[in-house]
Amino acid sequence: MPTIKPISDLRNYGEVLRDVAIGSPVFLTKNGHGRYAVLDIDEYKEFEKMMAWRKLKSELDKGRQSGEENGWIAADEVKARLGERYGG
C-alpha cells in the first residue's frame, strides 16, 4: 500500500523519509492532488535502467521495422559507411 502524505509534512522531513523504502515510495500531495514521489535511491537507479532499456528497445524495434520495410543493408556496407563517417 503506498504511503500518501500532504506536502506540508515535509516540515518534519525526517518522518517522511523514515517511511521511504525499496518498493514503498512516499507520494506527496499538493492541494489534494498527487505532485511528488520520494523514492529510495536504489529504486530510482533501477527505474533509470528500465527507462534506458525501454528507449533502446524502441530504437531497435524501429530499426528492425525499417529493415523489414525498406530492405537490409549488408554488413560490409555498414562498415564502409561507419568508416567514412567516423574515420575508422
Features:
alpha+beta; 88 residues; elongated; single chain; 2 domains
Structure description:
With 88 residues, this protein is α+β, with helices and mostly antiparallel strands. The protein has 2 domains: 3-39; 43-86. 55% of the residues lie in helices and 17% in strands. It contains 3 helices and 3 strands. It has helices at residues 13-18, 41-70, 75-86; strands at 3-6, 26-30, 33-38. Strands 1-2-3 form a 3-stranded mixed sheet, with no helix packed on it. Strand 1 (3-6), helix 1 (13-18) and strand 2 (26-30) form a beta-alpha-beta unit. The mean pLDDT is 94.
Beta percentage is 15-25%
What is the element string, with H for helices and E for strands? Answer: EHEEHH
Looking at how many chains there are and whether they match, the oligomeric state comes to single chain
Name the overall outline: elongated
Q: For the CA atoms, what is the radius of gyration?
A: 23 Å
The beta-strand count equals 3
Distance between the termini: 54 Å
Biggest sheet record: 3 strands, mixed
